[in-house]
Write a structure and sequence with these properties.
Blueprint: H1 2-17, H2 19-28, H3 33-45, E1 48-51, E2 56-58, H4 64-85, H5 89-103, E3 109-111, E4 117-119
Parallel strand pairs: 1-3
Antiparallel strand pairs: 1-2, 3-4
């Protein structure tokens, strides 16, 4: 049992050590600078928010298609990272969510696990 806890701790540490990599990849979460600008514009307008699980949410129906594309790219990154770290996709998403929260511009809406939206 103690070995399992060490393995889990090591895996979490590996994920956390990947936060810098996450910051680098974060730019890749939206594919291009233009797309990143569009994401930031949609965040600023309140049409798009971020969530505790590392995925974007459409707060306005007009942004749903865009958010679906962003989330598909994120999902691909999270799955790849989860496999390489031998952890769940959910764990990876939560680590990225923390990084996204740090990097997101002021005014970005965040959905907590409790289902409540708060603004940065």
């Amino acid at each position: 049992m103690r070995t399992r806890k060490r393995e889990q701790k090591f895996s979490r540490r590996m994920i956390l050590s990947g936060l810098f990599a996450a910051a680098v990849i974060f730019g890749g979460l939206t594919a291009s600078p233009a797309r990143a600008d569009q994401l930031n514009d949609l965040r600023a307008s309140g049409a798009v928010g971020e969530a505790f699980d590392g995925f974007a949410r459409a707060r306005d129906a007009s942004a749903k298609g865009f958010v679906d594309g962003v989330n598909e790219k994120r999902r691909q990154i999270y799955v790849k990272r989860a496999k390489s770290e031998n952890v769940s996709v959910d764990q990876v998403g939560r680590v990225y969510a923390a990084q996204i929260l740090q990097k997101a511009p002021k005014g970005t809406w965040f959905l907590g696990e409790d289902g409540k939206w708060t603004q940065k």
